[in-house]
């Protein structure tokens, strides 16, 4: 899901700063995310597990939903190629509220893409682009990391994501054969975007074990908000987890 991709990007940025503080070559992070569903589903919120693996030795970035290879160009500049196995927004008709179950199933897609990251001082920037058979998306995020003590630090992130017309129409449009119940007309949106921000903190018990927590908000453009199957113009997520370096 798109939430996992954004979460992985944020935690990878924090990992880059952490790498400067210790000599370990690998890091595993596991946890869970509680999020608000943007669609008009019976359950307004949900939970999903989260896991990533970062390796300096093989330049690998692995999560539950993606696989990436990062190549450092300079000390501060890096390029990453990735395959995202669950890009998009998954939706099943039987999960919708009464009156909205005439829609067809929306599946995630396998997307290939890449990103360019540049870090300076305690700021990490990342520009990305990926696409699959259901459309393309891309954007930019900036993460600021602020160490408070030797073991405790905080970070803040802001992002913007653009979605192609094909991408937006597949996940938020309404076709003729989906009209029924409370869905009374077709909807063919153009390209769209979202933007958001997040804040969090991490605490290191020692040079191997640590915990982290973060919360974020995402706001969607009118092309998404006006969709008959979208319930919220803003969604949120809260994530907690632990990390192990070796």
Explain this structure to me?
The chain has 246 residues and is mostly beta strands. It contains 3 helices and 12 strands. It has helices at 2-19, 165-172, 222-225, and strands at residues 26-36, 45-55, 60-63, 66-72, 77-87, 109-120, 123-132, 135-147, 152-163, 192-204, 209-220, 234-245. Strands 1-2-3-4-5-6-7-8-9-10-11-12 form a 12-stranded antiparallel β-barrel. The longest helix has 18 residues, at 2-19. It is globular.
Task: State the main characteristics.
mainly beta; 12-stranded antiparallel barrel
Please report the distance between the alpha carbons of the first and last residues: 28 Å
Low-confidence segments, given as residue ranges, are none
Order of strands, widest sheet: 1-2-3-4-5-6-7-8-9-10-11-12
The number of helical segments is 3
Query: Using DSSP, what is the number of strands?
Result: 12
Radius of gyration using CA atoms only: 19 Å
- Overall SS class: mainly beta
Order of helices and strands: HEEEEEEEEEHEEHE
Percentage of residues in strands: over 45%
Query: Percent range for helical residues?
Result: 10-25%
Biggest sheet layout: 12 strands, antiparallel, barrel
Determine the mean pLDDT.
87
Shape: globular
Short summary of the structure?
Helix content is 12%, strand content 52%.
Give the helices and strands, then pairings.
Layout: H1 2-19, E1 26-36, E2 45-55, E3 60-63, E4 66-72, E5 77-87, E6 109-120, E7 123-132, E8 135-147, E9 152-163, H2 165-172, E10 192-204, E11 209-220, H3 222-225, E12 234-245
């Amino acid at each position: 899901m798109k939430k996992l991709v954004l979460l992985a990007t944020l935690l990878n940025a924090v990992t880059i700063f952490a790498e400067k503080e210790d000599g370990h070559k690998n890091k595993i992070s596991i946890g869970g995310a509680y999020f608000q569903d943007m669609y008009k589903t019976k359950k307004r919120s949900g939970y999903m597990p989260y896991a990533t693996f970062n390796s300096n030795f093989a330049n690998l970035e692995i999560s539950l939903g993606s696989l990436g290879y990062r190549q450092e160009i300079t000390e501060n500049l890096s390029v990453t190629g990735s395959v995202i196995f669950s890009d998009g927004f998954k939706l099943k008709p039987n999960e919708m509220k009464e009156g909205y179950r005439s829609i067809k199933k929306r599946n995630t897609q396998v997307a290939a893409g890449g990103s360019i990251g540049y870090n300076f001082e305690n700021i990490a920037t990342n520009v990305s682009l990926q696409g699959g058979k259901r459309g393309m998306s891309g954007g930019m995020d900036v993460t600021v990391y602020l160490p408070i003590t030797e073991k405790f630090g905080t970070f803040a992130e802001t992002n913007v994501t653009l979605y192609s017309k094909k991408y937006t129409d597949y996940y938020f449009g309404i076709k003729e054969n989906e009209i029924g119940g409370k869905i009374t007309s077709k909807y063919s949106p153009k390209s769209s975007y979202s933007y958001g921000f997040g804040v969090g903190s991490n605490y290191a018990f020692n040079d191997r074990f640590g915990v982290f927590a973060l919360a974020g908000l995402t706001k969607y453009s009118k092309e998404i908000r006006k969709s008959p199957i979208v319930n919220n113009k803003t969604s949120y997520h809260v994530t907690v987890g632990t990390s192990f370096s070796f």
